[in-house]
Amino acid sequence: MPRPALTTLIPYTLGIFVAGFLPIPIFWLWLIALIFIIGAIALQRFCHPALLAAIFVCGMLRLGIVMTSPIPSHFYGQELRFSGRTVYQPQRGELWEECYAVGTIQSMTATTQAVKAKILIRFREPIALHYGDSIEVEGILRQAKGKRNPGGFDYRAHLARRQIFGILYPSRDLKIKPIHKSGFPLLRWMERLRRRVESVTDKMYGDTRAHAQLLKGMLLGKRSGISDVTIRVFRNSGVLHILAVSGLHVGLIAAVCFFGFSLFHLSEKVTCFLTITAVIVYACLVGFRTSVLRASLMVILYLIGVIIDRDVDSFNLLAFVALVLLLINPAQLWDVGFQLTFAATGSIVYLLPKWNNFTTRLP
Protein backbone atom coordinates (compact mmCIF):
# COMPACT_ATOMS: atom_id res chain seq x y z
CA MET A 1 0.00 0.00 0.00
CA PRO A 2 1.49 3.39 -0.98
CA ARG A 3 2.08 5.70 1.95
CA PRO A 4 3.07 9.11 0.55
CA ALA A 5 3.03 10.83 3.96
CA LEU A 6 5.44 8.27 5.43
CA THR A 7 7.65 8.48 2.35
CA THR A 8 7.82 12.26 2.76
CA LEU A 9 8.26 12.21 6.53
CA ILE A 10 11.39 10.02 6.59
CA PRO A 11 13.72 12.26 4.51
CA TYR A 12 12.23 15.42 6.03
CA THR A 13 12.87 14.15 9.58
CA LEU A 14 16.39 13.05 8.64
CA GLY A 15 17.06 16.54 7.30
CA ILE A 16 15.93 18.09 10.58
CA PHE A 17 18.07 15.66 12.57
CA VAL A 18 21.20 16.32 10.49
CA ALA A 19 20.67 20.10 10.63
CA GLY A 20 20.60 19.89 14.43
CA PHE A 21 24.22 18.69 14.44
CA LEU A 22 25.49 20.18 11.17
CA PRO A 23 24.32 23.79 10.81
CA ILE A 24 24.62 25.12 7.27
CA PRO A 25 23.94 28.75 6.24
CA ILE A 26 20.37 29.24 5.09
CA PHE A 27 21.45 30.73 1.74
CA TRP A 28 23.26 27.54 0.72
CA LEU A 29 20.31 25.41 1.82
CA TRP A 30 17.98 27.49 -0.34
CA LEU A 31 20.35 27.04 -3.29
CA ILE A 32 20.76 23.29 -2.81
CA ALA A 33 17.02 22.75 -2.41
CA LEU A 34 16.35 24.76 -5.57
CA ILE A 35 18.88 22.69 -7.52
CA PHE A 36 17.29 19.41 -6.45
CA ILE A 37 13.78 20.65 -7.25
CA ILE A 38 14.83 21.83 -10.71
CA GLY A 39 16.61 18.51 -11.24
CA ALA A 40 13.50 16.57 -10.24
CA ILE A 41 11.42 18.54 -12.74
CA ALA A 42 13.96 18.28 -15.56
CA LEU A 43 14.85 14.57 -15.07
CA GLN A 44 11.40 13.09 -14.89
CA ARG A 45 12.70 9.56 -15.14
CA PHE A 46 14.77 9.99 -11.99
CA CYS A 47 12.53 12.43 -10.18
CA HIS A 48 11.89 10.22 -7.14
CA PRO A 49 15.46 10.28 -5.69
CA ALA A 50 15.79 13.96 -6.55
CA LEU A 51 12.53 14.79 -4.79
CA LEU A 52 13.57 12.84 -1.69
CA ALA A 53 16.85 14.75 -1.65
CA ALA A 54 14.96 18.03 -2.01
CA ILE A 55 12.68 17.09 0.90
CA PHE A 56 15.77 16.21 2.97
CA VAL A 57 17.29 19.64 2.31
CA CYS A 58 13.93 21.32 3.02
CA GLY A 59 13.98 19.71 6.47
CA MET A 60 17.40 21.24 7.11
CA LEU A 61 16.21 24.57 5.74
CA ARG A 62 13.06 24.64 7.85
CA LEU A 63 14.97 24.02 11.07
CA GLY A 64 17.51 26.69 10.17
CA ILE A 65 14.74 29.25 9.61
CA VAL A 66 12.93 28.42 12.85
CA MET A 67 16.04 28.37 15.04
CA THR A 68 17.47 31.63 13.69
CA SER A 69 16.85 34.42 16.17
CA PRO A 70 15.36 37.62 14.70
CA ILE A 71 16.80 39.61 17.62
CA PRO A 72 20.24 41.18 16.99
CA SER A 73 22.93 40.16 19.47
CA HIS A 74 23.55 43.76 20.59
CA PHE A 75 19.94 44.02 21.81
CA TYR A 76 20.67 41.75 24.75
CA GLY A 77 21.71 43.40 27.99
CA GLN A 78 20.30 46.83 27.14
CA GLU A 79 17.04 48.62 27.83
CA LEU A 80 14.42 48.17 25.14
CA ARG A 81 10.79 49.03 24.50
CA PHE A 82 8.36 46.22 23.68
CA SER A 83 4.93 46.72 22.17
CA GLY A 84 2.74 43.75 21.30
CA ARG A 85 0.09 41.34 22.53
CA THR A 86 -0.08 38.24 24.70
CA VAL A 87 -0.38 34.84 23.04
CA TYR A 88 -2.81 32.07 23.98
CA GLN A 89 -1.72 30.49 27.29
CA PRO A 90 -4.59 28.47 28.80
CA GLN A 91 -2.36 26.94 31.50
CA ARG A 92 -2.16 30.28 33.34
CA GLY A 93 -4.74 31.44 35.88
CA GLU A 94 -6.20 34.83 36.66
CA LEU A 95 -2.86 36.34 37.69
CA TRP A 96 0.19 35.88 35.49
CA GLU A 97 3.73 35.97 36.84
CA GLU A 98 5.10 35.74 33.31
CA CYS A 99 3.73 35.53 29.80
CA TYR A 100 4.64 34.91 26.19
CA ALA A 101 4.06 37.87 23.91
CA VAL A 102 4.54 38.65 20.22
CA GLY A 103 5.34 42.17 19.11
CA THR A 104 7.96 44.75 18.19
CA ILE A 105 11.18 45.25 20.11
CA GLN A 106 12.64 48.72 19.69
CA SER A 107 15.96 50.06 20.87
CA MET A 108 15.80 53.03 23.23
CA THR A 109 18.96 54.56 21.75
CA ALA A 110 18.29 53.99 18.04
CA THR A 111 14.54 54.47 17.62
CA THR A 112 14.70 53.50 13.94
CA GLN A 113 15.95 50.00 14.76
CA ALA A 114 13.16 47.57 15.59
CA VAL A 115 12.50 43.84 15.13
CA LYS A 116 9.45 41.65 15.52
CA ALA A 117 9.85 38.61 17.78
CA LYS A 118 8.24 36.39 20.39
CA ILE A 119 9.63 36.83 23.90
CA LEU A 120 9.02 35.85 27.51
CA ILE A 121 8.13 38.70 29.89
CA ARG A 122 8.66 38.19 33.62
CA PHE A 123 6.78 40.64 35.79
CA ARG A 124 7.84 42.03 39.14
CA GLU A 125 4.54 40.91 40.64
CA PRO A 126 1.56 38.88 39.36
CA ILE A 127 -0.75 40.82 37.07
CA ALA A 128 -4.20 40.12 35.61
CA LEU A 129 -3.90 39.43 31.89
CA HIS A 130 -5.89 37.73 29.15
CA TYR A 131 -5.19 36.38 25.71
CA GLY A 132 -4.81 39.14 23.13
CA ASP A 133 -4.15 41.95 25.63
CA SER A 134 -2.10 44.72 24.07
CA ILE A 135 0.84 45.59 26.29
CA GLU A 136 3.65 48.11 26.24
CA VAL A 137 6.66 47.67 28.51
CA GLU A 138 10.22 48.89 28.86
CA GLY A 139 12.92 46.74 30.37
CA ILE A 140 16.17 44.83 30.02
CA LEU A 141 16.28 42.03 27.46
CA ARG A 142 18.43 39.04 28.38
CA GLN A 143 19.16 35.62 26.98
CA ALA A 144 18.07 32.53 28.86
CA LYS A 145 20.74 30.51 30.62
CA GLY A 146 22.22 27.72 28.55
CA LYS A 147 23.38 24.27 29.54
CA ARG A 148 25.66 24.44 32.59
CA ASN A 149 26.78 20.80 32.75
CA PRO A 150 27.19 18.17 30.01
CA GLY A 151 23.87 16.41 29.55
CA GLY A 152 22.07 18.98 31.69
CA PHE A 153 18.92 20.92 30.91
CA ASP A 154 19.43 23.68 28.32
CA TYR A 155 16.82 26.33 29.09
CA ARG A 156 17.92 28.55 26.20
CA ALA A 157 17.44 25.72 23.69
CA HIS A 158 14.13 24.84 25.37
CA LEU A 159 12.80 28.35 24.71
CA ALA A 160 14.33 28.49 21.23
CA ARG A 161 12.35 25.39 20.25
CA ARG A 162 9.27 27.44 21.05
CA GLN A 163 10.69 30.30 18.96
CA ILE A 164 11.36 32.42 22.06
CA PHE A 165 14.76 34.09 21.92
CA GLY A 166 14.78 36.47 24.87
CA ILE A 167 13.49 37.21 28.37
CA LEU A 168 12.38 40.76 29.17
CA TYR A 169 12.60 42.04 32.74
CA PRO A 170 10.42 45.19 33.06
CA SER A 171 12.07 48.23 34.60
CA ARG A 172 8.96 50.41 34.50
CA ASP A 173 5.24 49.96 35.05
CA LEU A 174 3.42 47.83 32.52
CA LYS A 175 0.86 49.53 30.31
CA ILE A 176 -2.16 47.48 29.31
CA LYS A 177 -4.60 48.75 26.75
CA PRO A 178 -8.20 48.30 28.01
CA ILE A 179 -9.63 46.82 24.81
CA HIS A 180 -9.10 43.06 24.54
CA LYS A 181 -9.97 42.57 20.88
CA SER A 182 -6.73 41.40 19.30
CA GLY A 183 -6.04 37.79 18.38
CA PHE A 184 -8.43 35.15 17.07
CA PRO A 185 -12.06 35.49 18.23
CA LEU A 186 -12.33 31.70 18.64
CA LEU A 187 -9.43 31.60 21.11
CA ARG A 188 -10.83 34.57 23.04
CA TRP A 189 -14.14 32.73 23.35
CA MET A 190 -12.28 29.57 24.41
CA GLU A 191 -10.46 31.46 27.14
CA ARG A 192 -13.75 32.77 28.53
CA LEU A 193 -15.23 29.26 28.36
CA ARG A 194 -12.25 27.81 30.20
CA ARG A 195 -12.50 30.39 32.96
CA ARG A 196 -16.21 29.62 33.22
CA VAL A 197 -15.49 25.88 33.56
CA GLU A 198 -12.95 26.61 36.31
CA SER A 199 -15.39 28.88 38.12
CA VAL A 200 -18.17 26.28 38.03
CA THR A 201 -15.75 23.61 39.30
CA ASP A 202 -14.74 25.81 42.24
CA LYS A 203 -18.38 26.47 43.14
CA MET A 204 -19.26 22.77 42.98
CA TYR A 205 -16.71 21.84 45.63
CA GLY A 206 -17.08 24.93 47.79
CA ASP A 207 -14.70 24.76 50.74
CA THR A 208 -12.89 21.64 49.52
CA ARG A 209 -10.72 23.64 47.18
CA ALA A 210 -8.10 20.91 46.94
CA HIS A 211 -10.63 18.59 45.27
CA ALA A 212 -11.54 21.29 42.75
CA GLN A 213 -7.87 21.82 41.87
CA LEU A 214 -7.42 18.08 41.35
CA LEU A 215 -10.44 17.90 39.06
CA LYS A 216 -9.17 20.85 37.03
CA GLY A 217 -5.80 19.13 36.78
CA MET A 218 -7.36 15.91 35.47
CA LEU A 219 -9.78 17.57 33.05
CA LEU A 220 -7.85 20.64 31.89
CA GLY A 221 -4.26 19.80 32.77
CA LYS A 222 -3.96 22.83 35.05
CA ARG A 223 -1.61 22.06 37.95
CA SER A 224 -0.79 25.60 39.10
CA GLY A 225 -3.30 25.47 41.98
CA ILE A 226 -2.32 22.03 43.27
CA SER A 227 -0.09 22.02 46.35
CA ASP A 228 3.49 20.80 46.15
CA VAL A 229 2.70 18.07 48.69
CA THR A 230 -0.06 16.65 46.48
CA ILE A 231 2.17 16.80 43.41
CA ARG A 232 4.88 14.94 45.33
CA VAL A 233 2.42 12.24 46.39
CA PHE A 234 1.24 11.72 42.81
CA ARG A 235 4.84 11.64 41.56
CA ASN A 236 5.98 9.12 44.18
CA SER A 237 2.94 6.96 43.39
CA GLY A 238 3.81 6.95 39.70
CA VAL A 239 0.47 8.43 38.64
CA LEU A 240 1.49 12.03 37.96
CA HIS A 241 0.46 11.56 34.32
CA ILE A 242 -3.18 11.67 35.49
CA LEU A 243 -2.73 15.42 35.99
CA ALA A 244 -1.32 15.90 32.48
CA VAL A 245 -3.68 16.13 29.52
CA SER A 246 -2.65 13.68 26.82
CA GLY A 247 -4.00 11.83 23.82
CA LEU A 248 -5.94 9.54 26.15
CA HIS A 249 -8.14 12.48 27.18
CA VAL A 250 -8.80 13.36 23.55
CA GLY A 251 -9.67 9.74 22.77
CA LEU A 252 -12.11 9.58 25.68
CA ILE A 253 -13.76 12.85 24.65
CA ALA A 254 -14.09 11.64 21.06
CA ALA A 255 -15.50 8.24 22.09
CA VAL A 256 -18.00 9.68 24.57
CA CYS A 257 -19.18 12.35 22.13
CA PHE A 258 -19.46 9.91 19.22
CA PHE A 259 -21.55 7.37 21.12
CA GLY A 260 -23.47 10.12 22.90
CA PHE A 261 -24.50 11.81 19.66
CA SER A 262 -25.37 8.40 18.20
CA LEU A 263 -28.07 8.01 20.84
CA PHE A 264 -30.01 10.81 19.16
CA HIS A 265 -30.32 8.65 15.99
CA LEU A 266 -28.35 11.14 13.91
CA SER A 267 -26.73 10.10 10.67
CA GLU A 268 -23.15 8.86 10.83
CA LYS A 269 -21.79 11.89 8.98
CA VAL A 270 -23.56 14.35 11.27
CA THR A 271 -22.29 12.43 14.31
CA CYS A 272 -18.73 12.57 12.96
CA PHE A 273 -19.03 16.31 12.30
CA LEU A 274 -20.29 17.01 15.83
CA THR A 275 -17.51 14.84 17.30
CA ILE A 276 -14.90 16.79 15.31
CA THR A 277 -16.32 20.02 16.71
CA ALA A 278 -16.14 18.68 20.28
CA VAL A 279 -12.53 17.55 19.81
CA ILE A 280 -11.51 20.97 18.45
CA VAL A 281 -13.18 22.73 21.38
CA TYR A 282 -11.46 20.48 23.91
CA ALA A 283 -8.05 20.91 22.24
CA CYS A 284 -8.45 24.68 22.45
CA LEU A 285 -9.52 24.48 26.09
CA VAL A 286 -6.51 22.49 27.29
CA GLY A 287 -3.93 24.14 25.05
CA PHE A 288 -2.03 22.89 22.05
CA ARG A 289 0.30 20.37 23.66
CA THR A 290 2.05 17.96 21.30
CA SER A 291 0.17 14.88 22.49
CA VAL A 292 -3.16 16.72 22.30
CA LEU A 293 -2.44 18.00 18.79
CA ARG A 294 -1.35 14.54 17.64
CA ALA A 295 -4.45 12.82 18.98
CA SER A 296 -6.81 15.59 17.84
CA LEU A 297 -5.47 15.62 14.28
CA MET A 298 -5.65 11.83 14.06
CA VAL A 299 -9.24 11.76 15.29
CA ILE A 300 -10.27 14.62 13.00
CA LEU A 301 -8.63 13.12 9.90
CA TYR A 302 -10.05 9.67 10.65
CA LEU A 303 -13.58 11.07 11.02
CA ILE A 304 -13.15 13.14 7.85
CA GLY A 305 -12.29 9.88 6.08
CA VAL A 306 -15.53 8.39 7.41
CA ILE A 307 -17.50 11.43 6.21
CA ILE A 308 -16.09 11.23 2.66
CA ASP A 309 -16.24 7.39 2.62
CA ARG A 310 -12.50 6.81 2.37
CA ASP A 311 -10.43 4.10 4.07
CA VAL A 312 -7.70 5.39 6.38
CA ASP A 313 -4.27 3.80 6.68
CA SER A 314 -3.09 4.19 10.27
CA PHE A 315 0.63 4.44 9.46
CA ASN A 316 0.05 7.01 6.74
CA LEU A 317 -2.30 8.95 9.02
CA LEU A 318 0.23 9.01 11.86
CA ALA A 319 3.01 10.05 9.48
CA PHE A 320 0.87 12.85 8.06
CA VAL A 321 0.15 14.21 11.54
CA ALA A 322 3.86 14.10 12.44
CA LEU A 323 4.70 15.85 9.16
CA VAL A 324 2.21 18.64 9.86
CA LEU A 325 3.59 19.21 13.36
CA LEU A 326 7.19 19.23 12.14
CA LEU A 327 6.31 21.66 9.36
CA ILE A 328 4.86 24.02 11.96
CA ASN A 329 7.84 23.67 14.29
CA PRO A 330 10.62 21.22 13.31
CA ALA A 331 12.39 21.79 16.64
CA GLN A 332 9.70 19.59 18.24
CA LEU A 333 11.76 16.63 17.07
CA TRP A 334 13.94 17.07 20.18
CA ASP A 335 10.95 17.47 22.49
CA VAL A 336 10.50 14.46 24.79
CA GLY A 337 6.71 14.76 24.59
CA PHE A 338 6.82 14.60 20.78
CA GLN A 339 9.11 11.57 20.82
CA LEU A 340 7.08 9.66 23.41
CA THR A 341 3.64 10.32 21.93
CA PHE A 342 4.62 9.19 18.42
CA ALA A 343 6.72 6.27 19.65
CA ALA A 344 3.84 5.00 21.79
CA THR A 345 1.20 5.51 19.10
CA GLY A 346 3.41 3.99 16.40
CA SER A 347 4.00 0.95 18.58
CA ILE A 348 0.27 0.52 19.16
CA VAL A 349 -0.50 0.83 15.44
CA TYR A 350 2.20 -1.72 14.60
CA LEU A 351 1.57 -4.26 17.37
CA LEU A 352 -2.24 -4.20 17.57
CA PRO A 353 -2.89 -6.15 14.31
CA LYS A 354 -0.28 -8.74 15.34
CA TRP A 355 -1.90 -9.07 18.75
CA ASN A 356 -5.33 -9.49 17.16
CA ASN A 357 -3.97 -12.21 14.87
CA PHE A 358 -2.47 -13.96 17.86
CA THR A 359 -5.66 -13.86 19.92
CA THR A 360 -7.78 -15.22 17.09
CA ARG A 361 -5.72 -18.42 17.16
CA LEU A 362 -6.36 -19.01 20.82
CA PRO A 363 -9.06 -21.55 21.84
Tell me what the structure shows:
This protein is α+β, with helices and mostly antiparallel strands and 363 residues long. Among the domains are: 4-66, no CATH class; 73-176, Beta Barrel (OB fold (Dihydrolipoamide Acetyltransferase, E2P)), CATH 2.40.50; 185-243, no CATH class. The protein is 54% helix and 14% strand. The chain contains twelve helices and six strands. The protein has helices spanning 4-21, 26-42, 47-66, 155-160, 185-205, 209-220, 228-237, 247-262, 268-286, 290-307, 314-328, 336-360; strands at residues 79-86, 95-107, 114-128, 134-142, 167-170, 175-176. The protein has a five-stranded mixed beta barrel. Helix 8 (247-262) packs parallel to helix 10 (290-307), helix 9 packs antiparallel against helix 10 (290-307) and helix 11 packs antiparallel against helix 12 (336-360). The longest helix has 25 residues, at 336-360. The protein is globular and about 75 Å long. It starts with a helix and ends with a helix.
Itemize the secondary structure elements and their pairings.
Blueprint: H1 4-21, H2 26-42, H3 47-66, E1 79-86, E2 95-107, E3 114-128, E4 134-142, H4 155-160, E5 167-170, E6 175-176, H5 185-205, H6 209-220, H7 228-237, H8 247-262, H9 268-286, H10 290-307, H11 314-328, H12 336-360
Parallel strand pairs: 3-5
Antiparallel strand pairs: 1-2, 1-4, 2-3, 4-5, 4-6
